[in-house]
Fold these 2 entries.
Entry 1:
Amino acid sequence: MNFEIAKDPINVQAVIDKVIQREAGAITTFIGTVREWTKGKKTVYLVYEAYEPMAVKKLEQIGTEIQERWSGAQVAITHRVGKLDITDIAVVIAVSTPHRNDAYEANRYAIERIKEIVPIWKKEHWEDGEEWIGNQLETVPYPTGKPEEKDFHE
Amino acid sequence: MNKLLFFAHLRDEAGHESVEIDAAGKTVAELKRMVAEKYGVQKLDSSMTAINEEFASNEEVIKEGDTIAFIPPVSGG
């Protein structure tokens, strides 16, 4: 189970352990955490929600895409859902590859893809209100009803 | 019958997590229009749609038993 949605705190080492391989010369780890201040607004806490079965499938797809692009890569991703406080870990991505440059690039690719195709949403709770993020500005309309290939590379 | 799933702000707007509806034979675009009218959901145009957990275009035709999820722009990570 290299790709998971978790309701409990993520054990970073457990995610890293999944990509350990004798062929690897590098493991990169990305840890996404809950930030207190965004554009002058103070976050009190976040709630993440996922369409879980599809989210797991899409995380698996990202893993497959990485293995097609960076040969020899092993990937593990765990994303948390539920209520998260400031500094809590929301996502951990571990990538191992034979050489370090690939591990950095592939890890960056994974987080950008998560923000495009994995059905997970966050609700910001501020001192004076709350809002689902990703909806209000409507900066990412999908006129055809699904993401186009070009949307993945912006 | 078909199961429709709403997430994030769409669920708040619709007032339901899921509903059962007969949508077989309709395209995704037709279903979006119908759902917007019936459940008062405003922002379906900016949402993606998944049929049986895979992204689908507005032209795709829904079959009996399909599960349709409306996916607002995502904000994970």
Note: The domain at 8-59+62-71 of chain B is CATH 3.10.20.30 (Ubiquitin-like (UB roll)).
Entry 2:
Amino acid sequence: MRRGWIRFALTEKRLFRTPSYLLVLLALPLIMLGMRFFSSEEKGMLTIALYAEEPADDLAQEVIEKIVSEEELLYCIVCDSREEAEEMVTGGKADAAWILDADLREKIASAAEGRAILPVARILVREDNVLHQFSREVLAGQLFPEFLYDVYREVVLHDLEIDLTEEELRSIYERRLVDGNLFEGEYLDGEAVGGSDYLLNPLRGLMAVWLVISGFAAVLYHVRDEQRGAFEHLPYLKRDAQALYLMAVVLFNGGIAYYAGCLILQVLTDPFREALRLVLFLFCSAVFCLILGKLLRKTQYVGAMIPAMIILLLTFSPVFFDIKDFWMLQTLLPTYLYLNSVHSSFYAAAMAVYMLAGAAVWGILCAVHARRFPGR
Amino acid sequence: MIRAYLNAQFKRTAKLSAVVLPVSLLLFLCLGLVAALFLTRGPFSENRSRYGIAVVGNIGDSYLGFGIKAVQSLDDSRFVVDFDTMPMDEAEKALRRGEVAAIFVIPDDFLDSVLYGRNDAKITYITGDSQKTIGTLLIDQFARLASELIISSQAAVYGMQDLLISHHTDGTAFREISDKMYLELAGLVMTRTALTEVEELGFSDGEDQVSWYFHTILLFFCFLFGMSSAGVFLLRNPSLPRWMRMRGLSAAAQVLCEYLVYLLLTLLCTMIPLWVLIRILENLKLGIVFPAFYELFPALLPVLLLTSALQFFLYESVKSPVAVFLLQFFLAAGMGYLSGYFYPPGFFPATLRFIGQLLPTGVALSYLRGVVEDLPPAGAAVGIIVYAVLSIILSVHIRRRTIAMGGAL
């Protein structure tokens, strides 16, 4: 046990001999801090240029104010003229322009009178796509409640011929408006879907991939030492133990930097549960990298394989998007299991199984290799 | 001396390229697969536009079930969302397999809660995502919009009903008037998006999604190549620079020779697999027009000058193999993220967008896009030259210091 700690400390000393390693570890949480700071600025998945044909129209002003303050997925720029709004779209500075017609309130009231929906706003786009269809719903969603109110007014005043003032009508209507959302979001483990930043969300996945890459780097380091003859005096099983020590140290250091990064990003759920899952993930990454290192065995092969691994990990793990069609391949990737385990004990259990199975496979590979070269 | 050193480097790198070239080809094929997946199943793809939602609850032939069928047939949201009713265990399996994006669980008393205006029962939507992805965000927004529609419609109907009651209208007349209003409102809700009119201006100054991601994925490979060629740098004889210096070969000459050979390796391992990939993609007839190889080649050449110079500098300056790999990952994935390789640059706030454009990844993207799209890339060209030259100068400086201090690579 004591020898193990000494070896651990010596490996740490070797790694930290070069200041660049410490700088890289510190860079991760610092970069996350910078991202958190800068991502708090105004932004949106779509940039919308807003313009009201009649700026003095109180409804148009109300709608614009609501859109600017409430729509967190849209970044809105209020323009002074229709031409400015159009130029922003054609020049690529905005994804769409929303132009509210003049006499907005009168037009909606007139449409409600005829119970027929007519266009009262124009959406100018370069090309129509998914996000624009969604944004069309958003704009209609801002205008439609006013239309509904006018329909209600028409029904009461003209169909039912009940004589009321505007204030009385408005008061009865607003008495029935309920605050809050009729929907509530949950993850698979029952935890509520909280507010979070779409720009910061992928960073957790990127950091998880970074951790796995650090495991590969440890394997590469070890394989390079082996190719240079640093372990000529050791039998193969002891060389594998060296690889294990190096892996443990590198992943331990990387895990601390990762946890610090997650704390800064405020993406952790329960800190204790997250720490346990992180430990499982580190073990899974260790066996994953050690197995591949054992199979490839040369610096040039390991190095050549790493970019392909990065692409596989980024594509098939829920970092930027969540594909679930290739589960047989995906369950081999530690990042897939780990990122899905954040809100699912099923995947946490899968990581435990993965760790044990992976350790067994690596042990078998080591034993087979040692048997092929006895006496070393 | 220079020629002999160059020859030695060529021979050494040629041996390593026997491994690097086939792996680069494999890497390009992986990238092609990624591109195809991203374009067909990513959050912004047209094919991905319909989000499947599993609906769980005792809806049966109730108004809610009728409402869901009506939404599926008549509402504009049918182009974006696909509802499918099923039991909870099937829904959870479908969610785990990715067949649906979310589960909507409708409690038994939801309909009564809405009809009687209590609104105390809520529909729970369960997402299978591990975090709030863009898909979850869109569903969240969709749920909020639907909620506002329901609440506004309720306020209109119940406000009217309150007045009917206060004016002593009840029984058959009350029901007839209420039903008439429900039907009218249902029809109006279905056509709500007609309040807006879409006008497509056609394309100008913008770049379509397909070519954007083709360029970014290509550049992502270029920035990752430093890892593929780790054998070139990590297996160097550590004493060689000092030995060559003693034989009269300066640090600058050493660096330039090694850089030239590395650049040739990069060109070989990028252009050949790229040509193969474009041929494969064209033969697959995906209905997408890819840039021709002869258009990409002159555009990529300066970019590869930049990436190879940067990678050379990283390997020269960072002695720890672990740290150099992690830095390469920061360079490719981290900076690539900020420069819009994964999410469109428009997603980022102005400051991050500006930073992203100045990074090597941003400069490379601006240049590549500019040349392929026939837009003047002068600023980007200057950026490429500055980064490349600076990297080489710093590499020479570090090599001199290493030799002078008696250190090894």
Note: Chain A has a mean pLDDT of 87.
